[in-house]
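Exercise 3.2. Students should predict the tertiary structure of the chain below and write it as structure tokens, then compare their answer with the key that follows.

Predict this chain's 3D structure.
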Amino acid sequence: MLELTDVVAGYGSTTIVQGISLGVRRGECSVLVGPNGHGKTTLLRAISGLIKVRSGSIAFDGSDITRERAEKLVERGLIHMPQGDLVFPDMTVEENLVLGAFTKSAAKNAKQRMEEVYDIFPRLLERRTQRARTLSGGERRMLAIGRGLMGDGKLIMIDEPSLGLAPVIVDEVYSQVRRIIDTGMTVLLVEENVTRAQSLADSIHLVENGEIVRSADEAGLLDEQALRETYLGMTE
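Answer key:
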């Protein structure tokens, strides 16, 4: 579904992503783990067209999208759910969801997709007429993910859904992300917490200093020594 080859990207004169190659198989969840500031978010931005790829190539669903504009990628079915609670605070829950179906293809299926979102996130159905600013942090995170699902995408990229949430709320959000994966959606997930990532991943990739330093098709097989070195700077 998604194939990256030697992708290099960054900001201004600073290179962050240092030649990453990565494949995401259709219907599976691939997870990028690693400490903050090592290039995971930058990589998602490069894939979704928010920043330019300096070199290398990106293919999505069989087509080269390396130079494609962000809005065109959404129309193709590539959905990026960024960090944080980027919702429209003065709009209701349902108005926020409707805005997620802004492309022509998504608008045709908006009613069905909204029912599916409410099924995954029943809390949003309860809050459907409330303004987003009145929601809790966990509810806003659910709304941000739900709005992304309204795009009727082929692949969704979720950037740290647990960021800044209390552990009990993280459990709830992750159980709902699990439900999304179980529908057969192709998912590329960024997460700092390896334990959380292991509960979801079909494949897992450890990112350090803008490079993938370890990968495993089974999350539990990711090398523990590599994790200690990357997260804690510990070497034997």
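Discussion points: The longest helix spans residues 167-182. The chain has a mean pLDDT of 90.
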